[in-house]
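notes to self, project folder thing:

trying the whole complex as one job this time. last attempt i did each chain seperately and stitching them together was a nightmare. two parts in total, labels are on each line so i dont mix them up again. if this works i'll redo the older ones the same way
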Amino acid sequence: MGMTRGRRGVSEVVATLALLTITLVAMAIYIQGFNLYYSGQTGLLSGIFRAGSEQNYERLSIVYAFQNGSGANTALYLVVSNYGARNATIDRVVIDTNITSFSPQTIPVGQVSVIRVNVSLSTESVHVISLITERNNVISAEFRV
Amino acid sequence: MARRSLHKDRKGITNVIGAILFVLAIVALTSIIAIVAAEYSSYVRSADYLSNLERERSSESLYFTYAAGNPLRLNITNTCSSSIKITQIVVHNKTSNSLVINPIASIPIVLNPGMTEYNYGITGIDTARSNATIMIITSRGNAFVIVVEGGNVIFRN
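result (full assembly):
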């Protein structure tokens, strides 16, 4: 009788421990699944932070611009340096508010690449050249070609 | 009597349901908070990376002096307080109408503060005959421009 009375609280302790264990395991599984499922998404609050940090790691600079060729073969050449910590894909090139036809080009980390844009610009005026990347960074510079 | 016994048997069910709901609520809330906190902390780290990089980038400074003409040779001194790594050289040779990235094999060059690289040669550029724009590009994305035109070498010090 005495022994039974002494063990009365054991089941409550065991139940609490079991509850804690179940909670922690469920949390771990949930977090891992959540991360895996939403790793490419940007719609959620965590996705917004993730996209923001990826934008911060992507750094490009327009080093030089010049125009070459004649007639229909005239093209604008942009020398772009990737000094960030992520490979950067340039999606669009906007020149003086005009979106030019351009096929996306990736610049690896630490590399300098030449981008050819089929456009003919006036040599008399200053032009604003903007590069828009896949991560929605915008790199703008003013140039006279 | 039988009704009373049945009622007595079902007494603990609400407790179990309550515990399950409690566990579910705790798991959902804490998990979401943990994920958002982790992402926010990685965002703060990236912002810190960005501000450090841009601060170092804006403080980069190279001092050029002319050494020889054919091929063009320069003495390059690091005049800022952090090391500079020259990773690329871009030469737009307007005489031959060509654009060459990395005409020499000796890069990258690391210059510690106050260090000078003597007789740094730019292949293919003859000062007396070439018209060219040369860009010395660093690992932090800065471009130091040297213009060779009409027998003169122009750089901003």
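what i see at first glance: Chain A has two domains: 2-54, 59-143.
need to look closer tmrw
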